[in-house]
Amino acid sequence: MTQQRLITHLRHVDLAVPDFAKQLDFYSGTWGLKAEHSDSGLAFLAAEGSPEQYVVRLREATDKRIDLISFGAANAADVDTLAGQLAADGVQLVGEPDTLQTPGGGYGFRFFDNEGRTVEISSDVAVREHRAIEEGESIPVRLSHVVINSADPEGTRAFYEKHLAFALSDTLMHPRMGDMMWFMRINAWHHSMAIARGPHPSLHHASFELRGIDEYMRGTGRLLRAGVEKIWGPGRHMAGNNTFSYFLDPHGNTVEYTTELDVLDEDTWHPHVYDFSNPEVSDQWGTANAMNEFVAQRSFNDPDKGLFVAPPV
């Protein structure tokens, strides 16, 4: 039986990287985030339009990895309830719920998912002073969604449905390869997470919402002019109906500019199964370079070296 949904939204994705300075320069300069509360070897990057204290955290480390993916909860009671349910179900907690020592404080805990990624659940984090992104500003408004590669995507989908009450929005399939990607939601946004079939657990991509089509295109063009490697786009997906431009950060993580992700009526929505071999499924506009095995492999990323090892901070 599916658990009651106690998480409310996606907060941030935390990455460990060997070349910290280069990565920080990319995200705080070219990509358009704002570094705040940063220290030696640790940087918290906020989106100007988001109330979250930060949407990306960078940590200097020997090994490249996802440090954690963070989700919000409505209150401390829900945090405690979730921690209790996970522990009762045999999920390994990194620690019991406690006061958070990260910017904005709050109350939360961390645990390992079925493949060993660290996940954080938190409530009562202070709201960051943010602003409306203005017309023509080609910087991220918020973190839209995170997509993970999984060597056991069916098991990963089942884990997030059972323990965190994620709901399936849509599925991508291919006639030769079967089901390939599952779009999962925790609120009315079409997806806050997606799970891609991959050779190993790793980050597939992190996606950032821009103000509108014009700002999205301006941002895409700004990155191209800056010489950032584009791997796919610009275009518009069918699942989620959102625009996409995928780039590589200096450490080979895929990051996306997007806008206009669908907001669903959860009471009436029925998941679709889309055939990925149909070109309109991957790009309704027909403007993106063709999706093929070479493009897909760029988002497999390096195997995550942080599985079942909690980040030090």
Automatic annotation (TrEMBL):
Residues 9-124, 142-260 form the VOC domain. CDD domains: BphC5-RrK37_N_like. This is Oxidoreductase. InterPro entries: Glyas_Bleomycin-R_OHBP_Dase, Glyas_Fos-R_dOase_dom, GlyoxalaseI/FosfomycinResist, VOC_core. Coiled coil: none annotated.
